Amino acid sequence: MNLYVFLGLLPLAYAFCAFVLFISGFIVKSRGLKIVGGIALAPVVAALLLLVIAVGMGERRSKDPAWVFEQEFLTPPPREVTGLRGHATEMNNGRFAYLRFSAPPEVIDSLISDWMAPASPSDLSRTDHPPIRWAPPTVPPARFYRATHLRKMCDGCGSDEVLCCDPATHVAYFGRF
User: Fold this and answer.
1) N or C: which end of the chain has fewer CB within 10 A?
2) Whole-number Å distance between alpha carbons of 127 and 48
3) Do residues 103 and 81 lie in contact, with contact meaning Cβ atoms separated by under 8 Å?
4) Can you tell me the distance from the alpha carbon of 16 to that of 1, in angstroms, rounded to the nearest whole number?
């Protein structure tokens, strides 16, 4: 554990030293110190810019319901899917996802075919606070499905995947908590 702390603090110490070197060039009015400090700071600035760009792109895509649908169901939304709304929280669809859409029963059956099993309404009771528009019905005739296994390749990508659909209105709600 101490090795990880050291490796985490090493880039921070490097950035601090480069910054001190750069500022020292201004204080003592040394062109050479400014150049050396600027060159030393360049990788730090580049890494921060790349991080900001990656987070920004991830957040923007996570608010696109079609992209979130494709990430969750591993297929683009079929043309029968209408009224698609939803989003994912955290960078690049990392933690929570909520979708609401209308689709015929055969489309819903094809989406859940090999990775979800019938479940009960109690599978929807969570401590997180889903958006107001994500309000699935909790009583029959609504059908409930729960993922039998997580399909994501990371450890922190949510703990449950639940789909609820109302056969009368053909509205489906998907949530990854």
Assistant:
1) N
2) 34
3) yes
4) 23
d(CA 134, CA 154): 25
The total number of residues shown for the chain amounts to 177
Structure tokens, 38: 């600027």
Distances (CA, A) of 129 to 7, 89, 177: 36, 12, 10
Q: pLDDT tens for residues 41-91? A: 888 888 888 877 776 665 555 778 998 898 888 889 999 999 999 888 765
Structural domain boundaries in the chain: 2-61, 65-176
Name the strand (E) or helix (H) holding 25.
helix 2-27
Taking the C-alpha atoms of residue 68 and residue 3, their distance in angstroms, rounded to an integer, is 37
The token pair that represents 44 in the structure block? 């730090």
Kind and range of the H or E run holding 118: strand 116-118
Vertex 55 angle, CA 47 and 163, to 5°: 150
